Amino acid sequence: MSETDKVDAGDELPQDLDVTGFVGPYTFPDNSRRRVPGVIYLGVAAVCLGLWAVRGPGGVLVNEGMVLVAVLLAAAGVFNLAAGHRLGVRETDALVAASRQVGFPVGHASAQLAWRGLRSRPTWRILLYSAEDPPERRGLVMVDGVDGHVVAHMVEDNPEDWSELS
User: Fold this and answer.
1) Cα separation of 160 and 127, whole Å?
2) To the nearest 10°, the Cα dihedral for 57, 59, 62, 66?
3) What are 43-95's pLDDT values in tens digits?
4) Residue 34, exposed/middle/buried by CB under 10 A (0-12, 13-18, 19+)?
5) Angle between helices 64-82 and 35-55 (to 10 degrees)
6) How far apart are CA 129 and CA 101, in angstroms?
7) Of the four, 20, 25, 97, 107, which is 20 to 30 A from 154 by CA?
8) Topology (CATH level 3) of domain 91-165
9) Strand (E) positions, 15-135?
10) d(Cα 82, Cα 69) in Å, to the nearest integer?
């Protein structure tokens, strides 16, 4: 086995996150994928609690530590189920909502998916520049990724100096 084979034998990204095979617009993975590990955590927590209940306290391999593990896994499972919001608004729809909000013709724009709040609600952060060359205004708009309403926005004159690029 050569050195390059040893290096290539490591972990791999899932196919939907691998950018080397990019063939078109990128689709962000749906946040509801968090529900699968949530169900697994709850199942393992139930098994740990069941083992402890059957074997009773004071055992060597099955003891009070199983209850602690069951509680921690159950908490993680409930959080994953609660935070598994379905992404209902794609980046193109968020860009449309953001361009309506800023009130100027949009030139360049950039979208980033972030999460807010304790339940990790998906939120699009959209940075927009006006269509002039160089852009005179810019805006930052946060669009909810579940229902598409504008959470917050800010518009200002562009403070960047573009004179050296003319």
Assistant:
1) 14
2) 40
3) 999 999 998 888 876 777 788 888 999 999 999 999 999 988 888 888 888 88
4) middle
5) 160
6) 13
7) 25
8) Nuclear Transport Factor 2; Chain: A, (3.10.450)
9) 106-116, 121-130
10) 20
